[in-house]
Amino acid sequence: VRIWGVEQQAEFADFYRSARDGCLRVVLINVGDRQLAEDLVAEAFTRAWVSWRQVRQHPAPRAWVVRTALNAHVSSWRRRRHEVALGEHDIAVPVGDDPVMSSALMTSLRRLPLRQREVVTLRFLLDLDTRSTARVLGIAEGTVCVHLHRALAALRDATAHPYRQEIDR
Amino acid sequence: MNDHEASATLQHSLTAAMDSLAGVRMGTSLEEIVGHGRARRRRRVAVLAGAGAAVGGAAAAVALVAGGLAAPGPGGPVSAKLAAWTVATDPNGTITITIRDLRDPAGLRSKLRADGVPATITFAGHSFTPAMNPPLPSSCQVPALSDQANAELQGKIMPPPPVPPGAKRMRFTWTSTVNGKRVKHTGGGYAGTAKDSRPDVALTIRPSAIPRGIGLNIWAWAAASGTQNGRPTLDMSVGLVTTSRQCTGS
């Protein structure tokens, strides 16, 4: 039987208030869909609340939330909103008229494999170093470097030939 | 462009993207997150309690088979055996439900009520993932208890099962929910032999620990995880409800 202390509830509330918007923006960059990003982040924070005793001791709780969001299935939150569940969110989706968000680089970023996106996200958007990124993802530091190198190569290639992927699809 | 230059370009673009999203804010309130989490935690506590009981419940079920062969003596277990499920009353006052097939939920509810356990029984035709809590029957209500009080009461009603003396050691597997993911555990049980291991689910209940006005919301379903010995593996969830004629029949 778990005892959920008042102090821990307040601690989670503080964490949610301080981290929610930043996590939402990071996830939004990754998925490109405002409502989907909100659902994913809500799901991740729900899991953080359920497992707060573990998450509060995590070296990078925000990274835990973002990574959980990127890996989450959001069927329950989708049902609550009476929307059609999106079975596969690991695809690029339109982001409207925002020139930054719809740039070739951002579009290419969303087309990267999930692991490469995770590495790029943790390294550049959450500003973790290679060692911390490796710990959060549970992989070797060398593997982080390999994924980052491949991600950069793919992005470099895509931005040099911004329409090639569209033609290839 | 080398990796260093590409990193700088990407970082610059990502910073610009984050800046462009400065007005984007979460619309989900803290209360919604906590409410969703509480429902999920209730489910997890219920599954863990049911899973813990299932280990010993299976042991008790196997012990009953042995008792049938040797004819139980005075004060020995008395059981009502049906093909789909068994409700066994143990000398210490606990009862053990073992479900083998998802049939006759109304009969199981009547038997439990006669044994002092008001309950609503649902045998679902589909499985539930950890994120898909079995719903509360529309005719039922959750008692007004805090999460902690609810979990503590469940712990009293569904105690750790006794280990039959002299029984053989046996391995049982069950599933629970950890961090939102279904995890399979292997635990120790005592009874029978490995050949007796079946995909049943079992639950040990102490009727004397159930306060007036409280009943059990028991769901069982065929787990999506597959079969065992050619039969679908069953899974179970237990929670508390408020008794009423519509919900628990009493």
List the topology elements.
The complex is a heterodimer of chains A (169) and B (250).
Chain A: H1 6-31, H2 34-50, H3 52-55, H4 61-71, H5 75-80, H6 104-110, H7 114-125, H8 130-137, H9 141-160, H10 164-168
Helix pairs in contact in A: 1-2, 1-4, 2-4, 6-9, 7-9, 8-9
Chain B: H1 3-20, H2 30-70, E1 78-81, E2 85-89, E3 95-99, H3 105-114, E4 119-124, H4 147-157, E5 169-178, E6 181-190, E7 201-205, E8 214-228, E9 231-242
Task: Supply the key terms.
heterodimer, A: 169 residues, mainly alpha, 0% strand, B: 250 residues, alpha+beta, 4-stranded antiparallel sheet, 3-stranded mixed sheet, 9 strands, elongated
Describe the 3D structure.
The complex is a heterodimer of chains A (about 170) and B (about 250). Chain A is mostly helical and about 170 residues long. Helices cover about 70% and strands about 0% of the residues of chain A. Chain A is built from 10 helices and no strands. In chain A, helix 8 crosses helix 9. The longest helix of chain A has 26 residues. Chain A is globular. The relative contact order of chain A is 0.12. Chain B is an alpha+beta fold and about 250 residues long. Chain B is about 30% helix and about 30% strand. Chain B has 4 helices and 9 strands. In chain B, the strands form 3 sheets. Chain B has a 4-stranded antiparallel sheet. A 3-stranded mixed sheet of chain B has the order 4-8-9. A two-stranded antiparallel ribbon of chain B has the order 5-6. In chain B, helix 2 runs parallel beside helix 4. About 30% of the residues of chain B have low confidence. Classes of the chains: A mainly alpha (about 170), B alpha+beta (about 250). At the A-B interface, helix 1, helix 2, helix 5, helix 6 and helix 7 of A face helix 1, helix 2 and helix 4 of B.
